[in-house]
Structures are given as structure tokens and as C-alpha cells.
Design brief:
- It is a single chain.
- The N and C termini lie far apart (51 Å).
- This protein has helices at 71-101, 108-121, and strands at 2-12, 21-31, 34-38, 42-47, 51-58, 62-68.
- The protein is built from two helices and six strands; from the N terminus they run ββββββαα.
- The chain has a three-stranded antiparallel sheet, with no helix packed on it. A three-stranded antiparallel sheet has the order 3-2-6, with no helix packed on it.
- Helix 1 (71-101) runs antiparallel to helix 2.
- It has two domains: 7-56, no CATH class; 73-120.
- The chain is of the alpha+beta class.
- One of its GO terms (cellular component) is plasma membrane.
- The chain crosses the membrane at residues 49-68, 75-101.
- It is a multi-pass membrane protein.
Length: 122
């Protein structure tokens, strides 16, 4: 049911919001047999660390989704990701070379490990 006027709904958080967390008012939208959370029809108009006030134009199932917007966390995550990827690729390359050069240990198990290493490297 959609209304011409907005009504406010206050939602209580399960835990207090931390610095950098940004709450978003969302509603459940069903499309056919599937559903998804959507911000359409609801906007955040206020609140504090324990409550969020949403202005909505329709009845639905309401929720609060939080997003962390911190450049420091984002930068740290990027550095860890690239470092981990680099170390993994070097180790996989060394494993592939080892499997190819050690013909004396050649068996079905070594062949499977070689193929797995090639797939992970790719």
C-alpha cells in the first residue's frame, strides 16, 4: 500500500552504531518468487547511535542496513589483499616449477597437485 504522505517509523538497533557506520533505511521488495532489500520509498530522517528514524510512503517489512565508510580500513584492506595475492602467486609458481622439475616423484597425486596449482594460479 502506497500513501501520498510520509509516515515515520523508528527502528531500534541491536547494537550501538560505531564511528563510520552509516545506517540506511530499506524495505523488502518481492519480485515474482524472489525478493531483495531496496531503499526506494524510505529515507533516513534522523536518529542516534541506538535508533534510526525512517520516513516511508508504504507499508512493508523494514530494516536498517549499515555500511562502514572508512578510508583507513579500505586502504588497509587493499594493501593486505594485494600483498596476499602477490605472495600466493609466487608460492603457486614455485609449487608448479617444483612439480615439473621433480620427475623422480612423479605419480597420480603429484599430477593432480600440479593441475590444481595451475588452476589456482590462473
Amino acid at each position: 500500500v502506497t500513501f501520498n504522505v510520509t509516515f515515520n517509523i523508528t527502528l531500534q538497533h541491536l547494537t550501538a552504531l560505531q564511528a563510520g557506520e552509516e545506517p540506511h533505511c530499506v524495505t523488502w521488495q518481492t519480485v515474482g518468487t524472489e525478493g531483495r532489500w531496496t531503499p526506494s520509498g524510505c529515507t533516513r530522517v534522523g536518529g542516534d547511535t541506538l535508533h534510526t528514524i525512517c520516513a516511508c510512503i508504504h507499508f512493508s517489512t523494514f530494516a536498517i542496513l549499515t555500511a562502514i565508510n572508512s578510508m583507513e580500513d579500505s586502504f588497509a584492506l587493499t594493501v593486505v589483499t594485494y600483498m596476499g595475492l602477490s605472495v600466493s602467486l609466487v608460492c603457486l609458481f614455485l609449487a608448479i616449477i617444483t612439480f615439473l622439475l621433480c620427475r623422480s616423484l612423479w605419480s597420480v597425486s603429484v599430477t593432480l597437485h600440479l593441475q590444481l596449482s595451475i588452476c589456482l594460479f590462473a
